[in-house]
Design brief:
nine-stranded mixed beta sheet; 20 strands; single chain; three-stranded antiparallel beta sheet; binds adenosine-5'-diphosphate; binds magnesium ion; 349 residues; alpha+beta; disordered N terminus
């Protein structure tokens, strides 16, 4: 995909619009990373701070795209090639951090979140930006051939920036966590520039800090199949992520095969349409939302507890909503929705 044209057009448009945006103390820009438009809004920043912030974030996002992409040539592809050959390889700090965090989340979620299943994701044809994919699922034998080797992020040994996999079937795919980490790094960079009120929003997956002047930042929670389920007022520094099983999928004449896989079976997960998680960090919210989609309707409360999450919302295939009391307190539904409150007993967030 070509990165630059859309990127620079939106940046130029925004730079032209900055003066107008400034009228009510808001600056905004649309940037681009991992095939998604990222809207960045700042409140109360100076023109100078905003211009610098947008230019630097744009550069950071471009670096992430090049280094962390699962199938476009770049550092992550080199790392995966080295793992397959059993060679040690040098990573960047971001990749090391994502591996460390993934190892913990993989362990706590009992393998439901596992970014080492890149070979399975590729086998299903999900290393593409063009959805839907038309065609039958892969052969069970081919799926089993990968599963039998049990690829896990915990097979990776980290020594400084140097990585080595003890398992040649480990292929990293950060599709379930990189967006979360990207918004964390963006927020951290804005803080370093002295900006205290901002929101970084990648199509409804976001992190915010501070306020929008007199009021809190207010964000929408996406609904499976399009539309909005409700709104949340962000409190201080918080991330909100939704993992959906409805936008990206493979399809044959029989059914749909969504892009989130259960690493233990090698097959797409089915009974959950989307999961929304609120927590303090994007990296955690993003990975956790993916893990909870895999956990499914029966398993999500236990996995939420294991991950110590208490603001969770799950939508099933029929549109029914299950949510924790802590999430219910925060969400203003936009319409009448069938819903059930579920206690998960987590204490941390
Ligand atoms: P969304 O596309 O809605 O942001 P996710 O955050 O759940 O969804 O990310 C889905 C992506 O994560 C997939 O496209 C794939 O790259 C990767 N992935 C799929 N299944 C898993 C899994 N079980 N654990 C970790 N990553 C996964
Ligand atoms: Mg995710």
């Amino acid at each position: 995909m070509s990165l630059l044209p859309r990127f620079s057009v939106s940046a130029v448009v925004c730079l032209i619009l900055l003066a107008a945006c400034h009228r009510d103390q808001e600056h905004s820009a649309e940037l681009f990373v991992f095939g998604t438009i990222v809207e960045v809004k700042l409140w109360g920043a100076s023109d100078e701070q905003a211009n610098r912030a947008f230019a630097e974030l744009q550069q950071m996002f471009q670096g992430m795209h090049q280094n962390w992409h699962a199938w476009e040539p770049g550092r992550l592809v080199e790392i995966n090639n080295a793992f397959a050959d059993g060679r040690p390889v040098e990573a960047d700090r971001g990749i090391v951090e994502m591996i460390r965090r993934s190892q913990l989340i993989e362990q706590k979620s009992d393998g439901r979140f596992n970014p080492a299943i890149g070979a399975l994701i590729r086998l299903w044809g999900f290393h593409t930006s063009d959805y839907p994919i038309i065609g039958p699922p892969p052969d069970s034998a081919e799926i089993d051939e990968i599963l039998i080797h049990n690829p896990s992020s915990r097979d990776i040994r980290i020594d400084g920036l140097q990585l080595r996999s003890e398992n040649p079937f480990v292929q990293l795919d950060f599709g379930g966590i990189a967006k979360g980490y990207a918004v964390d790094l963006a927020i951290r960079h804005l803080q370093d520039l002295g900006i205290t009120n901002a929101i970084v929003n990648a199509g409804g997956d976001l992190r915010a800090m501070g306020r929008h002047g007199e009021r809190p930042w207010r964000v929408a929670v996406r609904k499976p199949g399009g539309g909005i389920l409700g709104a949340v007022e962000v409190r201080g520094d918080e991330a909100l992520f939704t993992s959906g099983n409805y936008e990206r999928f493979r399809q044959d004449e029989l059914k749909r095969y969504p892009h989130i896989l259960d690493p233990r079976s090698g097959w797409p997960v089915e009974d959950v349409a989307s999961v929304t998680v609120i927590t303090t960090e994007g990296i955690e919210a993003d990975a956790a939302a993916t893990a909870l989609v895999v956990a499914g309707l029966a398993g999500w409360p236990a996995v939420a507890r294991a991950l110590d999450l208490n603001k969770v919302l799950v939508v099933d295939e029929s549109g029914k909503v299950y949510l924790t009391p802590e999430m219910e307190q925060r969400l203003q539904f936009s319409g009448d929705v069938e819903r059930e409150i579920v206690e998960v007993g987590a204490t941390r967030f």
